[in-house]
Amino acid sequence: MNINNPIICYNGTLIVDEQTNIISNVTISFSEAKQVVKLAKDKGIHVSLYKGDEWYVEKLEKWTRQESEITNVSPNIMSFINLFDVFTVLFSLMSLS
């Protein structure tokens, strides 16, 4: 991509340099992630979870398809409950309306 500056990813939770070395990585605990996911779902906000460069959603829907088309990346589809049991996650909310 010929990028010569830091790259800001996942709404700022991950910043990498030109060689993809991590400059900053902000994660939250499982309990915090579970609380935020519940709150977002209760409010009807789309939720995506990330671990490294892996993208997770619970179902394909409008915002998931749009993001997939923009980024040319396909998400992994699985229950977040199962995901919390397996991974430490980078968390990102997308509240597009």
UniProtKB/TrEMBL annotation:
Coiled coil: none annotated. Signal peptide: none annotated. Pfam families: Hydrolase_3 (PF08282). Transmembrane segments: none annotated. One of its GO terms (molecular function) is hydrolase activity. SUPFAM superfamilies: HAD-like. InterPro entries: HAD-like_sf, HAD_sf. Gene3D superfamilies: 3.30.1240.10, HAD superfamily/HAD-like. Keywords: Hydrolase. This is Haloacid dehalogenase-like hydrolase.
